Structures are given as structure tokens and as C-alpha cells.
Amino acid sequence: MDFLASPWFIITVVISIIIGNIAALKYLTPKNLDKLKKRQGNDLDRLIELDKKHQQEIKKKDE
Q1: Confidence check: pLDDT of 7 > 70
Q2: From CA 63, how far away is CA 59, in angstroms rounded?
């Protein structure tokens, strides 16, 4: 039980957790950014299409 309360053991565990979290962030972040960029691009394309339709409807009403 003395081993678990040892400062060296606690420091090793904390450093291991920090390194693991950094590795997980490096692995997952590019995937999340790709999804976010695709979603933003799709939303922008959809908004452009809706705006074109809306502008056409306005032109038809004016005529």
C-alpha cells in the first residue's frame, strides 16, 4: 500500500494521463475538423441555393 502513496508513482500516473489525453486529442482533432468543414460547406451551399430560389420568387412577383 505504501507504493500507491509514493510521490513517484503518483507523478507517473499523472504524466501518463496527460500524455494519453494529448495523444487522443492529436488523433481525434483532425477528424472533427474535417467533419466541421464539410458541414459548414454543405450549409453554405444550401443557403446559396435557397437565396437563389428566393431571388427568383421575388423577380416573379415583381413581373
Answers
A1: yes
A2: 6
